[in-house]
Amino acid sequence: MIEVKNLSKSFSGFLAVNDASLKIETGSITGLVGPNGAGKTTLFNVIAGVHAPTDGQVLLDGQDITGLAPHELFHRGLLRTFQIAHEFSSLTVRENLMMVPADQMGETLWKTWTNPSAVRAQEEQTRAKADDVIEFLEISHVADELAGNLSGGQKKLLELGRTMMVDAKIVFLDEVGAGVNRTLLNTIGDAIIRLNQERGYTFCVIEHDMDFIGRLCDPVIVMAEGGVLAEGTLDEIKANEQVIEAYLGTGLKNKEAS
Amino acid sequence: MTDILNAFILLSNFVLIPAIAYGSQLALGALGITLIYGILRFSNFAHGDTMAFGTMFVILFTWWFQSMGINLGPLPTALLALPFGIACCIGFVLITDRTVYKFYRKQKAAPVIYVIASVGVMFVMNGLVRFVIGPNDQRFADGERFIIKAREFKQMTGLSEGMSIKVSQGLTLVTAVLVVIALFWFLNKTRTGKSMRAYSDNEDLALLSGIDPDKVVRVTWILAAVLATIAGTLYGLDKSFKPFTYFQLLLPMFAAAIVGGLGSPVGAIAGGFVIAFSEIMITYPYKKFIAYIGPDGWTPNGLMQLLATDYKFAVSFIILLVVLLFKPTGLFAGKSV
Ligand SMILES: Nc1ncnc2c1ncn2[C@@H]1O[C@H](COP(=O)(O)OP(=O)(O)OP(=O)(O)O)[C@@H](O)[C@H]1O
Ligand SMILES: [Mg+2]
User: Fold this and answer.
1) Is A8 strand, coil or helix?
2) Fewer Cβ within 10 Å of end Cβ, chain B: N or C?
């Protein structure tokens, strides 16, 4: 469980996250929505250790993880994807995925010499896992392509694929669906549900697509102007006057009514 | 016909062969600079003095081996001392990283701060080298001097121009080729090498993967120290060892790294040869060459030298400026500077 307590983050005086408190229950797929600039990505960045918070605390299963470096959090099972897809552009898609698992023996120079068979065996295992993920995401045809040459949507898939390479505890997805076509979006949705049910991943999902959120997420947290505006099931959120005003707009309400 | 052959041999002897050797030395130096830039993201001004530092240990071990009567026959004893020199250089460089650069990494300091810190490290290394071995020229080459002597070549071919290939030149080329093959194998095939490339591509993402940043940084320094010591030793065998010369090598080495594209290993090698060939071709006096290929009686009065050897560093500088103006990412599209 992730617990965010009175978290604030200011960029030279501008409060991007303002006294936000929220909980992400273990085993849940929690949605995080809100207008552009609400501070969702910033909140992710603070939780994931990219930015140090100006104020407040982040707890992972009761342990204070505030201000830990990204790679330390990674080792504790906290993974995240980037809104603007990141990739190792000069490595192939498969190599990109194979970089994810930690503690690879090949990373220790002398083991490459003293115990080559074990190193190779482990590498084969990682490669097999990467191939599974590639197949699952239906990107086999670009497996040996340099990741830098992928399309925007394919890079998003690679982002998701990365989280499938290790046994994560909690995964933060920042708009994995943006720029991905409908059918693939459904596949991604299925993947998230399966990871959640079969491998026990907890998810926190930022997404602007309400159908996607509706299909996956319970509960949904709404952020606006750096703070948490509301929390509940999607239906509760949709009925919330404040949320309608700040985010969903009256159009949706009219549509629902008709 | 013999005139053309003579002209060709003349150029090979005074331009081609020296430039290949010098280019290999610059390439090895520039590789170290480019690796540090790609992964630690700063221009390491201490690299020239790291070369001097590593080479100094090679020389000290060489002298020690010589005093014990250990040698490699026709090959320079320095080859035997090389691994020991490398080990000392690695040790020192890792200590500097621990005591200096690590602090700034924690602070997430701006690149310019690293550069200034590296200037500080440069002065420390420079001082240490001068303190231990002194500022003067040191010769430490022993064994055979030549693979082919000019006189033998003349006798063999009957040409009036001779071509000599020094052992140090042959050794430089062979070593450089082996080192470059090993380095590229390492970067492209091993997990650590891939981690380094990944880290160089996207640091944020590397931190969110199973890549251990400390390990990547350590291996980068180790590689830089290995490359620096090898480059420095080869240069010292080929010319001579003088601390100030190694400091001066910084300019052509940086020019090579930037011309090739900072962060790009292939670029560093290409850049090394571009700089070496330009420097030597521009400062070579073509008088005799023209006398051979021109019609009779055309022998020019002047030296036909484009630039006096004293100004050879200007060549690197001009190439650097031109590249920065027209293709700031370098020939092989490294990171923009
Ligand atoms: N590194 C930064 N420096 C300065 N301001 C920043 C920085 N990162 C974010 N901000 C500001 O913080 C606010 C919140 O940005 P954030 O990216 O968190 O929004 P978001 O909720 O993710 O929006 P979107 O839905 O468009 O992705 C914005 O006004 C943005 O300009
Ligand atoms: Mg965002």
Assistant:
1) strand
2) N
